[in-house]
Structures are given as structure tokens and as C-alpha cells.
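INFO batch 0412 | record 1 of 1 | parsing
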Amino acid sequence: MILLTCVKRTKSDPRLGRFQNVLRAARNTEYYSPRLAAAHLATTAEVAGLRGIEEGLARLPCVDLSALVERRESFRNRAVPEMAKLGNERPEAAPNRWRRTLGFRVRSVAGRFGALQRLAAGVRSGEVTLARTVRRATVHSRVDLGLLRDAERDALWRDFEVPVFEEVRGFDDELLAWECEAHSGLHVNAECAVTETAGNGGGELVLTSLAGLRYPMLRVLTGLIVRQAEGLCACGEKSARVIFPPSLRKPMAVEHDSFGFSSQGALAR
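INFO prediction complete | emitting C-alpha cells
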């Protein structure tokens, strides 16, 4: 059984509008186009007639993450130009450059795990000194690259001596979920993501992005085993969360290179 975390929406809800935009973007992909036609979501009128996100999701089959990765060109929205790859600078130089350029004290370091790992190597060797104002390190993860492992988190903590947090981002670098100060799972960013689980209480996490237009994510099976939690978190946040119980944890189903997208100042893992 599939359980949805989102509540019933109306056409006036901007989340539904974003979902409809993703459906329109998906029509321009080789993979989704025939599936949307079979789900009666291939025309502008059919998409506009949706009464809620759940109705649209219920018509669509899940897609395995490995299929998206192995056939990524078939998932690309051909109406949107490919994003130019950003020039990657030496990550160890980033904190000081940001301070000089932006003129304020850096409070955190953030980027893909590989970038932070290289920055940590510079700290260990003495070649890099972090500003004393740095109070946290944030790892930008993506479901196709895998989430942060406990050993990796501990290593960054030892090198930076600041708390380590994680954000999960989509293929357009949209924020899908984030880790709070309580480190109690990942809070779902309801503005950009819809989460489902296959099973009662715990199961495989199914992700839909409400913001990805270049590589639409519609009901992607992530390979991550989670349980969903709602209600007040220890951090005081009431948004829905996904939690990774140790008994249900399993590695990602696929291992591969990144799509090549990266946010400014971050290098691919």
C-alpha cells in the first residue's frame, strides 16, 4: 500500500500548480511522454483538470532510480537547455574567498561531500584555516549519489569540530529535505517535494519533485528504506519527516557518477 504524506489540495494551492508544471515538463521527455499519455495526463486540458496532487500521482507508475540514472537522457526535458557546468574552484579556498568577496563573516561551510572532504584534508594538513565564525558544515546530498554515512559524518566532525548537517537536493539542485538541529531524520520541504512510502510504517522512499523541470522526478523509487513521521520534532518543527531506522537501513541500489550538476562553490561527490 502507498501512503502519501501530503494533504488534500485545491487548484488554488501553489503546490498543485508546481506539480502541473512538472507534468508539462515531463511531457517533453522520452521516458515520461508515453506514460503520461497512458495516464490521461498528456494534454494541457487533462493536466489543468487535476483536482489534487494525489490524483495525479495515483495515475502514474513508479520509476526505479537506476533507470533514471542509466537512461538519463531519456528523462531530460528537451525544451529546457542543458545547464552549463560551473567552473569548480579549489574548495579549500572557498571559505576565505566568500569572506573577502561578500564582506561578512562565514557562519558555515557547505557543498557536496567530496568538496568538504577535500577541504577537511586541507584543514588536517594545516594548509587551510577555517574562520573562527564557522559554526556548522552542511553536506548537499542527492538520492542518486547516496546519503551521508555515519563514518563520513564523524570524519567531518573530527576535522571541522562543528556539527554536521545534511540536505537532500534534486537534479535541478532544488531542496527536497533537510536535517534539523535535533538530527531526527530529514524534514520534507513541502514546497518542493512529495514523499511516499511503499508499506505500512516503513518502506522504500518514493520521491516526487515539485520544482525539477530539466530532469523531472515523478514517483522515483530511491532505494532508501524509511519510515515517515509527523508531529512535533524535538527541534520544534512540525513538518513531516522521514526517518531511517537502523533495522530498515540499506545502501543505495545503484552506484554511479553524478549527473554533473553542482551548486556554486560545491564539487560533485
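INFO post-check: The chain is about 25% helix and 20% strand.
INFO record closed
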